[in-house]
Amino acid sequence: MIQLKDDHDNRGCLVGSCSLNCWAKYKISQKSIKLLKEIKNLKTEYDAFKEKTEAQPPRAVREIPTSSIVVGKIIKLNLEKVRGYLAGDNVSMVGIWGMGGVRKTTLLNEINNSLLGGDTNLGFKYVIPLVVSKEPQFEKLQKEISKRLGLPSNSEKSDIFEFLKNKDFLMLLDDMWKAVDLHETLGIPLPHHQSQRRQDRGQRCKHKVIFTTREDDVCARMKRPDKKIKVECLDGEEAWHLFKQHANEETINSNAGIKKIAMKVMEKCLGLPLALKVIGWSHVE
Description:
- This protein is α/β, with parallel strands linked by helices.
- It has three domains: 2-54; 68-230, 3-Layer(aba) Sandwich (Rossmann fold), CATH 3.40.50; 236-282.
- The protein has helices spanning 2-9, 18-54, 73-87, 104-114, 138-149, 157-164, 182-186, 216-221, 236-246, 249-253, 256-268, 273-282, and strands at 93-97, 126-133, 169-176, 207-213, 227-230.
- The protein has a five-stranded parallel sheet with strand order 2-3-4-1-5, with helices on both faces.
- α9 runs parallel beside α12 (273-282).
- The longest helix has 37 residues, at 18-54.
- The mean pLDDT is 80.
- It holds the Pfam family NB-ARC.
- This is Disease resistance protein SUMM2-like.
- Residues 78-251 form the NB-ARC domain.
- GO terms for molecular function: ADP binding; ATP binding.
């Protein structure tokens, strides 16, 4: 900046030549443009550094939207059972299984949301929900895990392992169609990787996994889960309640004949929540 000022002050002392004076002005303007670019680059670097250093760490749990309509007695009972497993030290992996449409995903989401808040998260530093699906794309899942942990998107399996191995975390894996080696495919530390103890309390870290699947056989192949929970269809009372919530209850109750037909339709759903919702919606009119 000082050099630019000196050049500007001396611009008229160039042998009185107009052409030389114009040339001096041109050189000064070019230097100014270059300096301005450098200042902008420095500001961009500063802003990026500030954003990185001031970024808040990821929240332990992120809420997953659910509908209170589909949360019934069975979901609540299984939720309390799972929270008991999570609070203790003897259960590290839980397999939730049952036919399609019995609300396994709903249960998993309720488990996630029950851990919201510092007083209810059972000490987990990270709760990581993932949808595995029938044909898992492990690179995509790996990026989702990295994003959830606040790691660079190009993080490797080894980076995820090193980050999580001494931290309390819960993996929530939905819709698994086959057994998966979580350590080999995603870098997830499993319970037997808990040999190192935390320096703060001298205790083993909580490495816990809950997964859902349609097949009991998948549970058997997932490194022998400590506990299995079978999600059953609804009983008659809860099935009727769910059906009415999705149908037009006013119309159903307006006529004894209509109510009788509605109950027969409901019974054909065999307590399957998904069928009750779909059939209920189709009988709104």
